[in-house]
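Practice set, problem 2.
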Amino acid sequence: MKAEIISIDDIKEDLPGYSPKKAEAFHSQSAKLADQLFDVRLRNSDLTKVILLCGGSASGKTEYLHTFLEGEPAIIYDGTLSSVKGVEVKLRNINRAKKEVDVHAVIPTDLKRAFAAFLNRDRQFSDEVFYRTHSGARQALSWIARAHPDVGIKVVESYYKIGSNEVFFDELIFNNRARQVEYLEGIQYTESQILGKVVDD
C-alpha cells in the first residue's frame, strides 16, 4: 500500500475560481473539505496508520512529505496543525477509527529564510498567516507532547545550505519524552515575537 495524502493546498487548486493570488480567500473552504475527506478516509481506508504533518507556512512540510513519506502506508494529512482545538478533533476521530497516529513536525532553523520563501511562493497569503501558523503549530505540538504521551512525535529541522535553494532536513533525536517536551517548550514564540525575528537585523 502507498500513502493516501490529503493536502489542503492541493484541494484548493481544484476549487472553481481559484488562482494562487487569491489563495487566502479559498483557504477556509479547502481546509473544511480536507477535514471532511480526512474523516472519510479514517472510516473507509484499510490503512491503519495516520501521519499528521505539523509546522508553519513555508516550513518545508510538503518537500519533507514528498522526500520521505510518499512511500509510507499511511493516511497523511498535510496541513499546519496550528490549532489545539483542531488537533483535539483530529486525534479524537483517529482514536474512534482505531488507527495509530504519529505527528511529524517540521521546524525551520531560520525563520527569516522561511519567511522569504513564504513571500516568494505562488500561493499568496497575508504576512499574518505566517506569524499565526508558526506560533500556533509550536503551541499545538507542545500541547500534544504533554497531553498525549501515547502519540509519537518526530521533530525534523528544515534548513538551507549556503548558496542553495534546496531545503534539507535533520531529525532531532531525544532520549525521552521529557527531553522532547523541554525542547518544544524552548521554541515557543508569540506571533509578535515571530514578526520581530523576521523583520529585525
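Problem 2, part (b): a different protein.
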Amino acid sequence: MAGRAVWARRGIRAAYAPVRSVLTPDAGDPVALARAFHQGLGCEECYVADLDAIMGAAPQYTLLRLLAAVGSRLLVDTGAAAPVEAGNALAAGADRVIVGLETLPSFETLAAIVAARGSDRVVFSLDLQAGQPVVRPGSPHRVGPLPLVQEAVRAGVRAVIVLDLARVGSGVGVDLELGAEIRRAHPGIELLVGGGIGSARDLAGAAAAGYDGALVASALHDGGLDTASLAVARRTHVRREDQRSVSR
C-alpha cells in the first residue's frame, strides 16, 4: 500500500501500517522483505497484493518490476478485471496473475482473461469476509463459496485461493471444512489458502484438509514460523504430491 509493505489485519485496510518484521530492520520495505523471503527463508513464490490497485488506483508496476528482480516467482493481485490488465501485470513481472472476486465484474470476464492469458497464468481468489463472499458493488454473484468456485472452474481456472480477510493477521487458523468441501468437489485443481496461518500446526491442518499451499505473512514477521518449520511443511507437501500422483 502506497509503495510500502503493510501488515494486514482482518481486512481493515484503513488501519494497515508498514510492517515491522523480525526478517529485516527496514520497516515496510517491500524489496528488503522479498529478499528475506527468497534468500533467508528459501521461498520460491511470493504473493503480492497491490492494495491501492485493488481499491481503484493505478497499479504499482515499477515496484512490481523491482520485486520480480529479487528472484522469486510472483503471484500478483493488481485488481485485474480485464484481459489487458492481467497482461500488464504479467508483463511487469508477475508469473501468475490473481483475479479476485472482490474486483471481478463477471465470470464471463474471468473466462476471457483465462482464454487470453492461459489457465496456467491465472489464479482465482475466492475473497471472503468471515466466510461470506466479498463481491464488487452491483455484482450478481451473491451465492455461497462453493458455487463461486464452480463458476471459476467452468471459466477455465485451474488454481484457486481461499482468502478470508477476517482471518488475515489473526493466527486463528484457516477454514478447514471449506477447504475439504472444495477439494472433494474439485480434486484436480491447485487449492491455496490465505488468512489465519499462525504456526506449523496450522500448516499441517491445512495440508490434511486438502490445501496444496498456504499464504503466510504474519507468522513469518513475528517469528511464529522459521526455516525449520517451513522445511517440514515443504517435505510434507512433496509427499502429498507424490501420493496424489500415484492415486491419479
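Answer key, part (b): The radius of gyration is 17 Å. The first helix runs from residue 30 to 40.
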